[in-house]
What we know:
The complex is a heterotrimer.
Chain A: H1 2-5, E1 7-19, E2 22-33, E3 37-41, H2 48-55, E4 63-68, E5 71-72, H3 78-82, E6 85-88, H4 101-111, H5 116-129, H6 145-158, E7 163-167, H7 175-191, E8 195-199, H8 203-207, E9 211-216, E10 219-224, H9 226-229, H10 233-238, H11 245-255, H12 261-273
Helix pairs in contact in A: 4-6, 5-6, 6-7, 11-12
Chain B: H1 2-9, E1 23-34, E2 42-53, E3 57-61, H2 68-75, E4 83-88, E5 91-93, H3 103-106, E6 109-112, H4 125-135, H5 140-153, H6 170-182, E7 188-192, H7 200-215, E8 220-225, H8 228-231, E9 237-242, E10 245-250, H9 252-257, H10 259-262, H11 271-282, H12 295-311, H13 316-335
Parallel strand pairs in B: 3-8, 3-9, 6-7, 7-8
Antiparallel strand pairs in B: 1-2, 1-4, 4-5, 9-10
Chain C: H1 16-19, H2 22-38, H3 42-59, H4 63-70, H5 74-95, E1 99-103, E2 106-109, H6 110-136, H7 139-154, H8 159-190, H9 200-231, H10 250-272
Antiparallel strand pairs in C: 1-2
Amino acid sequence: MERENASAVELRGIGFAYEKEQPVLQGIDLRVGRGERVAIVGESGCGKSTLVRLLNALLTPQEGRVFVFGEELTAHNAPLMRSRIGMVFQNPDNQFIGESVEEDIAFGLEGLCLKREEMERRIEAYARLLDIAPLLHKHPGELSGGQKQRCAVAACLAMEPEIVVFDESTSMQDERSRRELLSVMNDMREQGDYTVFSVTHDADEMLAADRIIALRGGGIRGDLPPDEFFADEQLLRDCGIELPFRLKLARELVALGIADQDQGRRTKTAAAKGGSGHERHEPYGQF
Amino acid sequence: MSGMNHTDSSDPNGGIAERERETVVELRDVDYTYQAGGPFAAAALHGVNLEIGRGMLIGIAGGTGSGKSTLLQLLNGLLLPTGGSVRVLDHTLLPGMKKPKLNALRRRIGLSFQFPEQHLFEDTVEKDLMFGPLNFGLPREEARARAAAALRSMGLGEELLSRHPLSLSGGQMRKVAIATVLAAGPEILMLDEPTATLDSAARRELIALLNRLCREEGRTILMVTHRVEELLEVADRWIVMHEGRAVFCGDADELADRADELSAWGLAVPEQLRCWSEWTARLPQLAALPLPRTPEAMARVIAEAVRGSRAKPAASDALDERIDSQERGHDLCATN
Amino acid sequence: MRDKLIIGRMIPTGSRVHGLDPRAKITAMLLFTAALILSNGWPQLAVLAALSLVVLAATKVPFKTYLRTLRPMRWLILFVFLFQLFAGAGAEAAAGSGVVWTWGPISLSGAGLSAALLAVARMVLLIVFTAMLTFTTTPSMLGRGIEGMLKPISRGGTGAERFSLMLRLALRFIPALLEEAQTILKAQAARGADYEEMNVRQKARLLMSLLVPVTVGAFRRAEELTTSLEARGYRIGAPRTSYRQLLWRGADTRFTVLFALLPIGALLIRLIS
């Protein structure tokens, strides 16, 4: 219980603007506990990526304070904090620094000043975890987008961060790679060692979160668990999110009296639980 | 029985089952090898056979490296086949032919690449929109009119014409970039993953615009996607590419019949099919019906079936008979 | 899409040349270049050519691949050839010796032709040898090699580290940028501006118009890349360990000494003749 109550990230009165007079974020207050899994959603340009970049001082807010693990983020401790917060970005090509998968994973580890034996151990362990061991000596040009993205995740996790941020990491992936990444994220969640932020447009990713934070007009428009989030049609519209087919159908069936309201709600939860779309769902509606 | 009548009238295939369509694209045994003969030769397409009728909205699905982007580039002569023949409108492209002047063809078949907004280069939206029409020899005034019309077709206002492309929002840039291809007035419009990285509402909006271009302006649309789900509601036909082969050609119902193979082809089973198969497992009489494309239609069909089975629990014989005749009808269609 | 550009990309064959210390290879490269500059006759060039052939063969990279690296340079090579041909011949014509053919202000001589061919041979050897270096050494090893060689000079500053990172990133991303440019050219062709069907003036205009999207693309990439570097805790000057230790072996010494003989030899031949 104590662990759950400890905060991983706390934002107090955050205001941020790239250009004066055009604030991207305003008056943001947010607390995320350790081990929570948070999806950050909203229309393009609403400041989602900006928000997560404040967490590891890639950007510095003009107003307000950022606390990570209870400690205020300053220019002084930012480098140390960065080693505790890993990030995976959208375009796998632009985060691949090494000329081989092995070198790319090593790049971050060198910055942690690890010994060679420890680097080897971690490279091997995380390559196995993400199923990229056979690719270790390949050049990024020989890899598919999905393989590159899994390497990016391995490179991030090998640094053994406590917070992992996925910044639209699945959006450039094809269906197979998207599902692979989702299952990696789900494994991380089940393992429970990580606090996970995912900035996303993907309904499956949202459904797999504990909490959805919706941004609009520079502020937090909603902060809800997925089933309540997907029940709020106006909120969905405000965030540029289309209701998934399954939920639309459930809603239509309720309207036609095939499933009652209560069952409708239960199906939402069912969809939320199995949202990553691997296992077969129980058909909903009793009659 | 009234339920059956109802579903018959809402059959989504009703409007497009015309037999006599002009074929605008025909591929015969097409092979394509990158850097053929070189040390880095890599085959991208093998023995592809395809026919596409005018005015259809075609979904081309497949994972990364399945050859779907290569396919598009063969259709407007950016690549010449290394085997077989490609016929598009009244042009035929053959292996090893001296590269013909292709603007006459490219005016009629437009191609929008992936992330087309990254290819905008002029300092106003209008100039960028006019680039194509001017290259294809239209007079300036005409090109200007086409530019404005293309912008409207993509659901954007003319006030954007004087803006700098880089000052637009991401979604607007994407639509402007597609409009730059549309401005030349192509009969066939090909788009390579036009919805990539957009949010779901923007994806839906873009697909509705493409559907309108097809239904109202009569353009043939070929849209590459790796998400069958987003296009299932509107696509007339599907082509699935896998490892350089066209492993499937057919409509949504035929695709539904082969849902088991989708994941082997690197595709996700779309939610529509997933939900439908769950319900058909429950209510076997649904299996004979064509796949309802929208959640509303699906809910309606399910509701009819549920009420039918509640009202007449003893009428299963009649039901079976109906299914039999339906199935026969379906077989006839498939073999045709 | 596949990476079409082959220079700047290591081709793993596991040869002994691949295993050499990058510092040895870079030193050899510098010595080889010095020898090329000092060589002024066919006999010296023949020796250099023979030695580079031996090294190329030792890399186990197909000879054809080396030839392909020359293709993008063919116009430059032709330019150097013509320039040497006429400039060299002009000088000799002024001296009034050895002119074999004159047409207006242009004259050719046997010596001029020989000088031009010599210049081309030097250039070809230089390109091929550079290609050998990049085919057998990953950019990161090259970077580390240069860093290792510069460190004694930069004395605790971050110059060597900056330079090494820049080199790594440049070699890593130039192919991607070229590919992007190629896609934009294709998109232009689809909109009726086919580069291959154009005259020189139109081509020049089209290439100018490429500058905008290519630059914007490069900036976008650079920005994402810096973000990703920072997010992975990279800071210039921050302490780092090294995954790949440079290891200088006997073979490296022998390799370097062999190449050190080249410019010395060339210099001696020059002094004697």
